[in-house]
Amino acid sequence: MAARRKKKKAAKRKSKPAELIISKARVKNAVKKCNVGAEFYPALDSAVRDLIKAAEARATGNKRKTLKAVDL
Known about the structure:
- Helix content is 60%, strand content 0%.
- The protein is mostly helical.
- The chain has a domain at 23-72.
- The longest helix has 22 residues, at 40-61.
- The radius of gyration is 18 Å and the shape is flat.
């Protein structure tokens, strides 16, 4: 019985969408003249994740373990 509960909990964790890296409140504060649509946040989050992956690839290609501004 306990094994079933663990499997259900594990399935719930896996189906949960990834948390946003960006902060919705901070994005809203940064936008001055426009409203922010709900679909904007996941798109921005995806763009940020892509930037981070590219920066990691550049840093590791340069044999570094530290991300720097030049990696962006």
